[in-house]
Structure formats: C-alpha cells, structure tokens
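Our consortium's second objective concerns turning raw sequence data into structural hypotheses that experimental partners can test. To show how far this objective has progressed, the report includes one record in full. It was chosen at random from the queue rather than selected for favorable results. The single chain below, 381 residues long, was entered without modification.
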Amino acid sequence: MNKTYPAGFDRADEESPFLAFVAEEFKLRGTERRKELAQKIISHPFVEQLGMRVPERLYVLDSLARLNELDLPDLFVLKLASGWSSRGVMILERTGPDTFFDHMALQVLEAASIVRIQEAAAASFGQSQGRWIVEELVIHTLGVGAIPFDYKFYCFDGDVGLVVQIDRNSGPVRVVLFDGAFRPLRLGRDYLLNGTTKPGTPVVPLHAPEMLWWAQRLSREADSPFVSIDMFDSPTGPVFGEFTYSPGGTHRRMFAFSHRMLDRFDELITKTGPAAEPLAGTSLELRQALAHPGPLAYRAWAGYAYGGGPRGAERLHSHYRQLAANCEPDDPLGAWYRLLSGIWAAIRDRLWIMNRRALAPAAVAEQTKPDRTANVGATPR
C-alpha cells in the first residue's frame, strides 16, 4: 500500500490474490506470451486478425531524426512501440512547417524538441534504442476535447469485473469507475481517489455492449488470469488500444478499492465466485443489432450529461426505454435496452442530486445577501 486509506479500503498486495498478481506482473511478465502482447507492435496485428478494429498504423520508426520529412496527416498519434500507460504518448497537430501542437502536453513543439522528449521517454523505460509508432488519431463518439476517452476493462479470463473511464482532456485527469456491466460505482463507497486524479461524470460509451464482448473475447487470448484491455469508442465501433497486465491505476493506488470490491476481484482471479454478468453470453452479432442513437444525437446527449446536465442522460434513458417497451419480454435485445435505460436513469438521478447540492448553498447565499439597492433614491438624513 502506498498510503493509508480509511478502514474498509485497500489491502497490502500479499493480502489479495488480485493485487499480488498486479504487483508481480509489474516486476516481471509471467509468461513469454504476456511479454509479446504487452507490446503494441505485436498486439495490434494480432487483434486485427481476430476482427477488431485497431488504429491505422502509418509508420514504425527506429529513429525520429527525419520525423518532419514524413508524409504525415495534420493530426496523428506518436507513441513508443514498447511503452505503456500514457507516458511518451503525443497527440500532434501540425501548426507550421516544423511545429506541432501536442494536445497531451498542451504545448507547441518543434520537431527537434519532439525527438528529445521521445528519446527521454524511451530511456525512462530502460530502452537504449527506442522504436516508435505513428498512427491515426481515433475520433471518439463523445466529442469532448481532442483526446479520446480511455476505457480500461479489467478482465478475468472471460469475465469483466470493472471498467475504468479516463478523461485526459483536463488536469488532473478525471476518473470514473463502473462495474462489469457499465453500472457506475460510487466514489466513497466502492473506491477512493488518491488526490492525483479527480472525479468525472460517468458516460456509457455508444458501443458499450460491443466493447464488453471484445473485452471478454480478448481476455481469453491474454494467457493470464487477469488483464486490463484498453479501448476507445468511435462512431463506427470499438477500437483496441493495448493489453496491460499491471495497470498503474491499481498498482500505484491512483484509486483504492473497497474490501467488498477486492473480495470480488479475488473471487474472479481465483475462479471461486460466480460469472460476472447474465448478459455476458449474448453474441457480438446481437449486440451490433442494437438500435443506438445516431452519432450526432449521442454526442449531443452524452456530452450534455458529461457537462453535468441531467437532461442529456434523460434523453438517452428515454431512447432505450422506448426501445425496450417495443420488445417482447424474452427478447435479448430488450434485456440490453432495459439495462442501458436503467443505467442512464441512474446517471440522470445522480446528476440531479449533484446539481441540487451544488446550487443550494449558492441560492441561499443569494437570497440572504443584503439588498444594497433598497435605499437607492432615498433622501439622505
């Protein structure tokens, strides 16, 4: 444990099979296959062969010396081929013949500066000679900021136990945790944040059911009792990011789980508890047949909800509620619509409560403020 949390949260690594596994994988990958899949240069072609979309790879470079001479799009991603987390990741937008704006670091960089920063990032991973990937920037469905929301699926050999939503468009980053079916967990009851991140607003991705299916599928290929699978949501469907066997959010205690949550993860990693979700067995084809809102409506409604507006969540709740009402009771599509409708209703209610709590003190202060206009125009005594 890296800091002391209140009673009922966090445990020492050796007291939890789940935390112990993450800590051991951080020190050394347990199998050769895990070492391979942890490298994007290997995992991306592998996942693409399985049928899932990956970001289009533009270049693989052993040197960045001639980066500015490449035929690059105006907006692209530059990352280390063997890096992990967001360290060394740049989202670059060309601003001039030799300059780029890095949306991750919020600064304009010359090509020479990019090379120096990237070589330092490679050295921080213990790499004397770096290797880099240049790839397309995934356009995400929410449309909040330039950086796509990152969804990390904590998977246990076919079962999804947790989803982490990360928004890097603000500082500190905003984090939200869901259970294995995208039901938002409660900060203060299910988990705590350590002060390096701040709470965000839960947003169920447009293609959440498909993302869950791919998380289950890919985790069975990971040669591991646990793996975190990173994905993005795009207007055309889920996009694979990477396999992570020792996610930093857990290992470094960016968030700490309650004992109840840790007990559940320990059950999943040791296969001593029930499977995660009853809808987990539905096919990818069925999930792809779900009638979601169009990308424009989703972006408007979900973006409004992410900004704190309950009306956006209500629109999404109503959309899925109406679809569920049109289904037969035993229709599996109806079961998904009911689940999504219920989740968005819960998000709506949470936003209403948060807004009432935030606005109540301001309203009281406004009503009790002295009226300095009461005597305007009165004859001075």
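The partners drew two points from this record. Residues 376-381 have pLDDT under 50 and may be disordered. The radius of gyration is 23 Å. Both points have been shared with the crystallography group to help prioritize constructs.
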